[in-house]
Amino acid sequence: MACKREKSADTQPVTTQWKCPHCNQWHSDLPFVYGPLYPDHYLAIPEDEREKRIQWDKDFCIIDDKQFFVRGHLEIPVRDSKETFVWDVWVSLSKQNFDRTINLMETAGREKEPPYFGWLCTNLFIYPDTTNLKTLVHTQPVGRVPIIELEVTDHPLSVEQKKGITLDRVKEIAALIINDDYKPEKRPGK
Length: 190
Prior knowledge:
It is a single chain. The strands form 2 sheets. Strands 3, 4, 5, 6, 7, 8, 9 and 10 form an 8-stranded mixed sheet that branches. Strands 1-2 form a two-stranded antiparallel sheet. It has a domain at 33-164. It has 5 helices and 10 strands. The chain is 20% helix and 25% strand. It has helices at 40-44, 50-53, 95-103, 156-163, 167-178; strands at residues 18-19, 26-27, 33-34, 54-56, 60-63, 67-77, 84-93, 116-120, 134-138, 147-150. It is globular, with a radius of gyration of 18 Å. Strand 6 (67-77) and strand 7 (84-93) form a beta hairpin.
């Protein structure tokens, strides 16, 4: 599911200067991509055991030769902008689908693969718990990470992916992420 938007008459250019409502400061950059370096499961492994138990690079992670993760982009259209907002997330795959992904790494036409089922393994703290939301992992052309499509539910992240968000929501997300006082334990629904 690629969320590409054609520029329309009501599309506004992105203004990068914005004022954070939490810190009351003006910022010159408005990021459109956020995400962790690791799946949440990585951080659950004691630090002194990680080197022995985990194989990791920026796109793949294997824990104890039993858990298999891929990094992908969960795209959300920005309705009043030409931009697409992206959560850089990790998804677990079955060993069979993970092996298939690895085997097709450099194969032209791999984007014709049917999507793989997976579980979201990135808890995005500005939402109610996102861990284990059902996903489809859509393989992209060589050189691009998969696109992650959430199962359509009433979860706020799924609703945003389906309906899109506004530029003001992108600014709100930026403010929540950069604000040191906004802690994961204050996540909505906690």
